[in-house]
Structures are given as structure tokens and as C-alpha cells.
Amino acid sequence: MRLRIGHPSDSSNNNTSTQQQEEQQQRRRGRRGTRSVEFKIIFTICLVSLSLLTLVPLDRNSVQNINNEIDLPLPLPLPLPQLPPKFRNITALIPQHLQFQQSHFGCGADYFRSNLEWEQKTQQQTICSPTLEVFSWLMDQVNSRNSIMMIAYGELIHLLREKALLRSDGNYYDDDFDTWVTPSSFETILKLEPDLWNNFGWSIRVIFRCSEGTEEERHKTNIAIFAQILPVCGHQYKAVMEKAVAKYPAIEMYVLQSIGHEQEGILHENWLGELFPEGWLLPAKPFPFDMPGFNKTLNLQIPAQSEKLLDCMYGNWHVYSKEHHDWGTNCTSSIAKS
């Protein structure tokens, strides 16, 4: 048998090869460790970035309550629907040459709804919402559109004197609910009628101005000078100019039109023929009102100088009286009193 005897350098070569292999494995392990750390860092950065992207700043109207809950942002008002054909050419602006005539003369009334629609709604045993509930919703709609609808006349007295809009027994002080609106606000509120009809069982009756001419020649124009927002319940459909009788008091809209003057801005009320200094009413003042017995804040509007207005129209309004103020009150200093 022949034995192969290795060369003395063979063992050293083997040792060197083993060391090199171990060094290569260590380098591989080091590279894997480095890659693992890099992966963890990149993964963490991605998670943080994603979480930051999903954060949304609070809406300006949002608040945090005591339960650490964030309320939802206030929704934007929905676009208003188009008016029905017979109401599309209505204006609440009286032409300048007619402004100082007896503009409270009306020549007819018209409803948003037909007599048939009214009868069908009545037969459906519609549940009508109370006046304050409707008015609360209406004011939220008006405010969200930067429109004007101010508490007026008797309701303004009760708000400031009794600090209430209902009696202690829950009944209303008056058989109607008075407000002042501008011509643009008037037209905006008309477009809310579908919501009033569908959600509250209410609609609108509009009083129109007479055309010029003799008694026989006069007829209804497209100029709206007054309107009643009223419930279907308890109301007999009548396209006539009269007080609205229904289960709940109607909300009445008196239109204030700026007529301008070289000495002072003047507002003309187009139904009763009143004249007011513009600065007494505008800009309207927000008047948040919490009333006992009503479950939410009423976001009302009142005139800029309410007490001056009431002093002019009623005199000592701080004391209860059954007397009504005269139509055509002139509170201006630059237009001669009649």
C-alpha cells in the first residue's frame, strides 16, 4: 500500500481557508444585521408618515366636549331649489316712484301650494311642528346664508320686556310671530318652502301689491309686500288678504327696503308703510336666546338699536298695553311727519 504523505504547507493552507470562510460569514451576518436595522428604521418612518397624513385639523366650528369627543363640522347649506313657475318672477322691491304711496294696499294673495295639494296634505293627517320649532330651524338656515330675519314689533317687546316668547303656561303671547326681512332675504326664505312643507307641515302665503290706477283698474302685480309662513294644520285654504288662522301662530315677514336719502339712510317697510333710520335696524345683531321649556338655543336676530325703535313706535313699551301702534310710523328726522 502506498501512503500519501502531505506536504507541510497543506495544513497551513487549510487553516487559512477556514479563517477566510469564517470572516466571510461574519461579514454576511454583519451586512444582514445592518440591513435589518435599516429596514426597521424605514418601516418606522413610513408608519409615522402615514399617521401624520391621516390627521385632519379640527374645523373652526368644532369643539371638544367634557367626554373628550369631537363634534362634527357644521354642514354647508344645501343649494336652494328653484321656485315654482308662478313665483319665479316675484320681487320684494317696490319701484322708486311708488315707494311713498300707500304701499300697504294689496290686491291679492297666493299660496305656494295648490288647493288640491293642501287638501291632500290635510287628509294625510299631517303632524305640524309648533311655531318655535319651525322658527328655530328657519333662523339656522337664514344665519347660515348670512341673510336677515329680525324679531319685530310685538315679539321684540316680549323678548326684551318679558325675556320670553311664550307665556308661563306654554301659550304664545300673540296670534302671529313678527319679523323684519330684507328683499333678498325674503326671496331666500321663499326658496325654503319645500323643506317647510316636507319636514314641518308648513307653507307660505304671499300678499301682492296693487298696480297703479283707479279702484277698478288695480290688479295684482308681481311685487310681494308681505308674507305669512303658516302650518297646514287648522288652516282653511283662502287666497285672500287676512290674518292667518291655524293651529299655531304664523310667522309673518315684513319687508324692509332701503330707499336712500341725501341726509340719512332710510328703510321703508313695504306693508305697513313705516319709515326707519337704517342705522336703527342694520346691521342686525345676533341674539342667542335660551328659553325655559325649549330644548335648544334660539339663534335670533334683533335690530341694531331695538329700544330706540320701540320707543318711537310704542312710547312706553315697558308697561303692558292692549293698544297697537299706528300704521305708517315715521321714525326718521329727515322726512316730514305726516
Question: What would your notes on this structure say?
Answer:
The N terminus is likely disordered. The longest helix has 46 residues. Strands 1, 2, 3, 4, 5, 6, 7 and 8 form an 8-stranded mixed sheet that branches. A two-stranded antiparallel ribbon has the order 9-10. The termini are far apart. It contains 8 helices and 10 strands. The protein is of the alpha+beta class. The chain is elongated.
Short description:
This protein is α+β, with helices and mostly antiparallel strands. It is 32% helix and 18% strand.
The amount of beta strand, in percent, is 15-25%
| Average of per-residue pLDDT values | 79
Count of DSSP strands = 10
Structural class, by secondary structure, is alpha+beta
Number of helices: 8
Give the termini distance in whole angstroms. Answer: 150 Å
Quaternary class: single chain
Order of helical and strand elements: HEHHEHEHHEEEEEHEEH
Shape: elongated
User: Level of helix content?
Assistant: 25-40%
Largest sheet: 8 strands, mixed
Uncertain regions spanning at least 5 consecutive residues: 1-9, 53-74
Radius of gyration: 37 Å
